[in-house]
Amino acid sequence: MAQAQENEDAAEDELHVSEAPMVRSVGVAIPFSPGFEINLDAVWWQTPRAEGLGRLADRWGMTENALLELNPELSEGERVDRGRRVLVYRYTPGTVSRSVGAPNYGRIENSAPFPQGEGWVLRSFRPRSYATRQTVETLAQALTQWHERYPDANPVKLGEFSKRGGGRVRPHKSHRTGRDVDLGYVMRDPDDGHRFVAVTDDNLDAEATWGLVQRLLASGAVESIFIADSVQEQLVPLAAETMDEAQRRATFSVLEPDARAKKKTTLKAVRGHDDHMHVRFQCTEADVNCKAAKRKKRRRRKRRRRRSRGRARR
Ligand SMILES: [Zn+2]
């Protein structure tokens, strides 16, 4: 997994793909489908193995004290049994969850972890499974609707989100503000791992993958999704069932010959996304100074100049 991730976001140099980010309103109750039983105000987690409280806290990128505060019945240094339900997040009324700054420079305030549920798999070590509550809610709803429609499809593997407080997530350039999430493509063959699998001509469950992309788009909360051309090509024929040509061209960068127009499509072929898709959610009204990813090139050039001047002095 780590390897795939490294290959990936080495590529997100191109993440300044969108211009001004879209903004959507929040504060409206999100109408979850009737089968949706995940309570995002209190996220519980079943421990995968017996281990010390400190190690459990590490799994969630939190301090032992923060975990004790949520679970006062536990005691410091305690060895916690496998399969025990531990509270890893509780919503504090009155607090606002928000993204601050650009996806490659900012942070998150009052983030929430992504909950367990049917239709997706989370890693057992998840200090980078946090996002804004808006992102968590929208994605959980899309995945739940997807699972209801494709109950027999293999579960979606969830990769990197953001750290609890946001900030740098190596080796990614973005993933800092709780608006970016990595999702595996839906594969035909089941596997019990968490590794993303590179898409070939015959291993993709294209129908279920398109079903997932459709539900993400239908949320109205997605800014862009990075998907390799080779994968987009397998989704286009399915899109033809519900989208006319103009809609398809506005959606798939692979259908758009013009380089400038490609940057405006919702699905973009950013390098490194042949084994997973990277979903960037829109800014919401709650976010602060939320903007598109910033270019770094000029800064780099400056630094290089400074370095070479330094060398010359020596
Ligand atoms: Zn990513």
Describe the structure.
The chain contains 9 helices and 16 strands. It is of the alpha/beta class and 314 residues long. It folds into 2 domains: 2-41 and 96-313, Muramoyl-pentapeptide Carboxypeptidase, domain 2 (2-Layer Sandwich); 42-90, Membrane-bound Lytic Murein Transglycosylase D, Chain A. The strands form 7 sheets. The protein has a 4-stranded mixed beta sheet with strand order 12-15-13-14, with no helix packed on it. Strand 6 and strand 7 form a beta hairpin. Helix 4 crosses helix 5. The longest helix has 17 residues, at 133-149. The termini are far apart. The structure holds zinc ion. Zinc ion is lined by residues 8-9, 172, 175, 180, 182, 278.
In percent, how helical is the residue content?
25-40%
Q: Profile the largest sheet.
A: 4 strands, mixed
Overall average residue pLDDT: 85
Report the β-strand fraction as a percent range: 15-25%
Shape: globular
Top CATH class of the largest domain: Alpha Beta
Beta-strand segment tally: 16
Q: What distance lies between the first and last C-alpha atoms, to the nearest angstrom?
A: 43 Å
Query: Strand arrangement, largest sheet?
Result: 12-15-13-14
What does this entry show, briefly?
This protein has 314 residues and is α/β, with parallel strands linked by helices. 29% of the residues lie in helices and 16% in strands. It folds into two domains: 2-41 and 96-313, Muramoyl-pentapeptide Carboxypeptidase, domain 2; 42-90, Membrane-bound Lytic Murein Transglycosylase D, Chain A, CATH 3.10.350.
List keywords for this structure.
single chain; 314 residues; alpha/beta; Muramoyl-pentapeptide Carboxypeptidase, domain 2; Membrane-bound Lytic Murein Transglycosylase D, Chain A; four-stranded mixed sheet; two-stranded parallel sheet; 9 helices; 29% helix; globular; binds zinc ion
